[in-house]
């Protein structure tokens, strides 16, 4: 049988989109997820879901052997920045220590291909935008630091043991599968587009717009929003690159453009014809005014061509998904 990719965190937001993309491409996969934030129903029916923790080396070992795994895509982890500030050691355990266990198991069993979910948070608050991959990595919170440590382990293990990796540094991931198969399902979300959809649907109080006095054209922060399905395609291409024997890469995942908070709200109102209840609020600590990727390298190295790179498409798919969730009224 053909080799199989082990996807950690396949029941979560981004991991589940990647499982669907792999399944669509006919690539066998298996996932380990502890279902702490993920949902069983997000996993495609054809993909075995093993409920368990990636800190469990013997579970990893059994899974890799039984499923003839030749590659790992590593999504499992914690992603809430303020939580990482109040509970840093939990972040180092879940993101860094568990990644060490996973990587160590890969080295021991000869699994030589790793695609890793990293983040633009490794850049901290850079002096210059747009941000290319050579920008110094100076994370400003434990979340970014916990991911950067894993990047470093991958680099060092690559040099010492020949493990090859594609490190994908995500900018602002948003939207949902255009076929409605999966989306961002955790009700306690903090990300702008999710929160704005919830506010529009009356599922939470008004959106707070954090900061209107930034040095940007309309005073609100600018981010590089990337559609989760385009990001999922990038993962499939990264896997194929490694399976072809391609070299290790570090790649920004964004479109190289930006939208402000006001522009996101306007897009949502345009596609829905409804108002987003919103109030102007003070700045949120730790938010840099602009985070926009230089996103040429991923196109050049992987031949990635985004298909959903219009803000209206991103917010529309997020809203369609949000409507499909049955949440109790607030
Ligand atoms: N934001 C906002 N209200 C919210 C959530 C986010 O105004 O309820 C702003 C936030 O200040 C930032 C942008 O939206 O400027 C994106 O924030 P998000 O948390 O989605 O992603 P981040 O860039 O922090 O990873």
From TrEMBL:
Q: In which pathway does it act?
A: Carbohydrate metabolism; galactose metabolism
Q: What class of enzyme is it?
A: isomerase
Give EC number(s), comma-separated. Answer: 5.1.3.2
Q: Which UniProt keywords apply?
A: Carbohydrate metabolism, Isomerase, NAD
Q: Which domain of life is it from?
A: Bacteria
Q: Which reaction does it catalyse?
A: UDP-alpha-D-glucose = UDP-alpha-D-galactose
Record note on quaternary structure:
Homodimer.
Task: Give the family, as the similarity comment puts it.
Answer: Belongs to the NAD(P)-dependent epimerase/dehydratase family.
- NCBIfam families per the record? galE
Output this protein's name.
Answer: UDP-glucose 4-epimerase
Q: Which organism is it from?
A: Azospirillum isscasi
The organism's taxonomy opens as: Bacteria, Pseudomonadati, Pseudomonadota, Alphaproteobacteria, Rhodospirillales
